[in-house]
Design a protein that fits this description.
The longest helix is centred in the middle third of the chain and has 23 residues. This protein has a two-stranded antiparallel ribbon with strand order 1-2. A two-stranded antiparallel ribbon has the order 3-4. The chain has four domains: 111 residues, no CATH class; 85 residues, no CATH class; 72 residues, no CATH class; 80 residues, no CATH class. Helices cover 52% and strands 4% of the residues. With 366 residues, the protein is mainly alpha-helical. Helix 2 crosses helix 3.
Length: 366
């Protein structure tokens, strides 16, 4: 060891080297602690590519196989590198660190702020997830090597939208709230470099499906149009395409342009759209029409429990035509007996208007 050689007084010594040794080891032992720390930091950086050292991290001990495998010198065995990094962040924050030491640590990739450390950890996880999946539109439950990247991205999007809102208010001459929680332009650019579509103006689930369909088409495959045709990364692409075609009018102009010109999707024709679901009021009116028809034929409303009444209602093209208006009608089967019994049992909950309507066709409540 160099120290042992210097302490052998029978051996000729370099005076300058001896003076440096005494200053380092005897007069100023803090320098020795720094030397060990910077040496450990350099090795950690070589092994991991950064200085994101957990606070509890220590250099492997002499009996740890990782010491030899990772190339740690015995002189650093057990060194508390995590605590050393944290101490230097604190010294830096208080202005108690020499410029030379600051430069040495920054050369190794030191991040001074705890908030910056958290950002860099999330950014690294985001890059890794994007490399594996081909985009940065991770679902909320997505993780990368244990890091909850989906939640991190959700928070980043919220911060980005806050920044946009602040800029819009400033442009309109409105009072600008505190910028706390807003994403900086630099950080926005870092995420844009990974995936420009990471923070869409519409739901991220929609953008993720759009991206996956585009990749599917770029691979030379046909556009999936029905549910179950293609499922990729847990996303039913056929179901999404169908929902886009049927819900075309609910999309923004930009979304419509993207779907039409990039994916070749066209809005559904009128005959492809499902019939609108009837409201509870519409259903009650149809059942009442059946009850009224029954009354006009039988002159009472004592309907057998299992009776089915058939009526014509405006709708599809399987029925006849209304002679006066020419509207297409279809026949419906109404379980009138069950409906009348149900109205009788829940008479107290009916509105006065409905009670009056039923009374007009001789409804008996008991």
């Amino acid at each position: 060891m160099p120290a042992r050689e210097l302490l052998k007084f029978s051996t000729p010594r370099d005076p300058a080297q001896l003076a440096a040794f005494i200053n380092l080891r005897v007069l100023n032992p803090e320098h020795e602690h720094w030397r060990r720390g910077i040496e450990a930091a350099a090795i950690y950086n070589r092994l991991h590519g950064d200085l994101k050292v957990p606070f509890t991290y220590r250099v492997p001990g002499r009996d740890d196989q990782a010491m030899e495998a990772e190339g740690w010198p015995a002189s650093l065995a057990g060194f508390p590198l995590g605590q050393w990094i944290a101490d230097n962040r604190r010294f830096y924050a208080h202005g108690d660190m020499d410029e030379d030491r600051i430069a040495q640590l920054e050369k190794l990739g030191m991040i001074w702020s705890h908030f910056d450390v958290a950002w860099e950890e999330g950014l690294a996880a985001a890059r890794g997830w994007a490399e594996e999946n081909g985009h940065l539109l991770a679902p909320l439950d997505a993780t990368y090597q244990g890091y909850r990247v989906g939640i991190w991205l959700k928070n980043a999007r919220a911060a980005a939208r806050r920044a946009i809102e602040i800029e819009q208010r400033r442009a309109e001459g409105l009072p600008v709230p505190s910028s706390a929680g807003a994403l900086s332009e630099e950080r926005r650019e870092q995420l844009d470099e990974i995936d420009p579509s990471w923070c869409p103006a519409w739901p991220v689930e929609w953008q993720r499906a759009f991206h996956l369909v585009r990749l599917h088409l770029q691979a030379g495959r046909p556009l999936p149009t029905s549910p179950g045709d293609v499922v990729h990364q847990g996303q039913d692409l056929g179901r999404w395409v169908r929902s886009v075609r049927l819900g075309w009018d609910k999309l923004t102009t930009v979304q419509q342009w993207m779907c039409e010109h990039i994916l070749g999707i066209e809005p559904a024709a009128e005959d492809e759209k499902p019939k609108p679901r009837r409201s509870q009021a519409d259903k009650w009116a149809m059942n009442y029409a059946a009850a009224k028809q029954y009354y006009q034929r039988e002159w009472h409303l004592r309907v057998p429990r299992k009776h089915i009444e058939r009526i014509l209602v405006a709708g599809g093209g399987n029925g006849g035509h209304d002679g006066e208006r020419g509207e297409v009608q279809e026949e419906r089967e109404i379980k009138l007996g069950a409906w009348v019994s149900n109205q009788r049992s829940r008479a107290a909950a009916l509105s006065p208007e409905r009670v009056e309507q039923l009374a007009a066709i001789s409804m008996r409540w008991t």
